[in-house]
């Protein structure tokens, strides 16, 4: 794992955007894996600005998001579909048909997981996966204890994850209890991974990631086994003064 230290959230976002933009500009066709949450918002903002200023085009980019809440429709303001539209897709020239997010409203969620995993494979896999990290080390919605062999699957969200995400909802009660997430093996199949870590609340997770052994009790630890991972972390997450 290569670790790039940056001063703050803005610099993390800028650095990450440079990495993503270079990849897009250097490939005929790129498949990006995308994350939600607070962490990548700044990155998406930088990509939008670059699209407007420098004209980087997304017409040949395909995207696959990591996860979606079960029970939230595409129209729900808290769905990750809405998040992606308002934070990225509506502001760049990507055809929506080239963007993919698991459906949280599928009649058969298990079938939706299989469909999603197959779709990623049929697209030739993910070239560059953007990741954030949960305070408990989750990646996507893969909570501690998730099998490293897992493909896209249904998860029961832990109370700590629901509480951490409650800030986007009216109340904790409204936070869904389940989600569909790419599995650990789906994430590990990506040819390259960019993990973004910012803020004091992620310091403990960052420390565990650097110091702990690879264990299913700390899902992000699997990244140590991936051949091409870059972590862009700010000084608050790294405890540098
Ligand atoms: C959520 C998402 C993850 C994200 C994590 C951290 O639960 N499913 O993909 O990385 O939380 O979120 P944040 O970036 O808001 O700290």
UniProtKB/TrEMBL annotation:
<dbReference type="InterPro" id="IPR018321">
    <property type="entry name" value="Glucosamine6P_isomerase_CS"/>
</dbReference>
<feature type="active site" description="For ring-opening step">
    <location>
        <position position="143"/>
    </location>
</feature>
<dbReference type="InterPro" id="IPR004547">
    <property type="entry name" value="Glucosamine6P_isomerase"/>
</dbReference>
<dbReference type="InterPro" id="IPR006148">
    <property type="entry name" value="Glc/Gal-6P_isomerase"/>
</dbReference>
<keyword id="KW-0378">Hydrolase</keyword>
<dbReference type="GO" id="GO:0004342">
    <property type="term" value="F:glucosamine-6-phosphate deaminase activity"/>
</dbReference>
<feature type="active site" description="Proton acceptor; for enolization step">
    <location>
        <position position="67"/>
    </location>
</feature>
<comment type="pathway">
    <text>Amino-sugar metabolism; N-acetylneuraminate degradation; D-fructose 6-phosphate from N-acetylneuraminate: step 5/5.</text>
</comment>
<dbReference type="Pfam" id="PF01182">
    <property type="entry name" value="Glucosamine_iso"/>
</dbReference>
<feature type="active site" description="For ring-opening step">
    <location>
        <position position="136"/>
    </location>
</feature>
<feature type="domain" description="Glucosamine/galactosamine-6-phosphate isomerase">
    <location>
        <begin position="16"/>
        <end position="227"/>
    </location>
</feature>
<comment type="similarity">
    <text>Belongs to the glucosamine/galactosamine-6-phosphate isomerase family. NagB subfamily.</text>
</comment>
<protein>
    <recommendedName>
        <fullName>Glucosamine-6-phosphate deaminase</fullName>
        <ecNumber>3.5.99.6</ecNumber>
    </recommendedName>
</protein>
<feature type="active site" description="Proton acceptor; for ring-opening step">
    <location>
        <position position="138"/>
    </location>
</feature>
<comment type="function">
    <text>Catalyzes the reversible isomerization-deamination of glucosamine 6-phosphate (GlcN6P) to form fructose 6-phosphate (Fru6P) and ammonium ion.</text>
</comment>
<dbReference type="InterPro" id="IPR037171">
    <property type="entry name" value="NagB/RpiA_transferase-like"/>
</dbReference>
<keyword id="KW-0119">Carbohydrate metabolism</keyword>
């Amino acid at each position: 794992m290569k670790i790039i230290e940056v001063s703050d959230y803005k610099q993390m976002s800028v650095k990450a955007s440079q990495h993503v933009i270079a990849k897009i500009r250097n490939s005929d066709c790129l498949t990006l894996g995308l994350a939600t949450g607070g962490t990548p918002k700044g990155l998406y903002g930088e990509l939008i600005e670059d699209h407007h200023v420098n004209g980087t085009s997304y017409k040949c980019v395909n995207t696959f998001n990591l996860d979606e809440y079960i029970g939230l429709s595409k129209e729900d303001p808290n769905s990750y579909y809405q998040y992606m539209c308002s934070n990225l897709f509506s502001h760049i020239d990507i055809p929506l048909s080239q963007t993919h997010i698991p459906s949280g409203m599928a009649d058969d969620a298990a079938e939706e997981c299989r469909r999603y995993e197959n779709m990623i494979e049929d697209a030739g896999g993910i070239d560059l996966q953007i990741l954030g990290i949960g305070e408990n080390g989750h990646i996507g919605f893969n909570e501690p204890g998730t099998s490293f062999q897992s493909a896209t699957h249904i998860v029961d969200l832990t109370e700590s994850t629901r509480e951490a995400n409650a800030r986007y909802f009216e109340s904790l009660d409204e936070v869904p209890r389940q989600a569909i997430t790419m599995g650990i093996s789906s994430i590990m199949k990506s040819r390259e991974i960019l993990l973004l870590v910012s803020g004091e609340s992620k310091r403990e997770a960052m420390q565990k990631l650097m110091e702990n052994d690879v264990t299913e009790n700390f899902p992000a630890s699997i990244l140590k086994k991936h051949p091409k991972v870059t972590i862009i972390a700010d000084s608050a997450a790294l405890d540098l003064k």
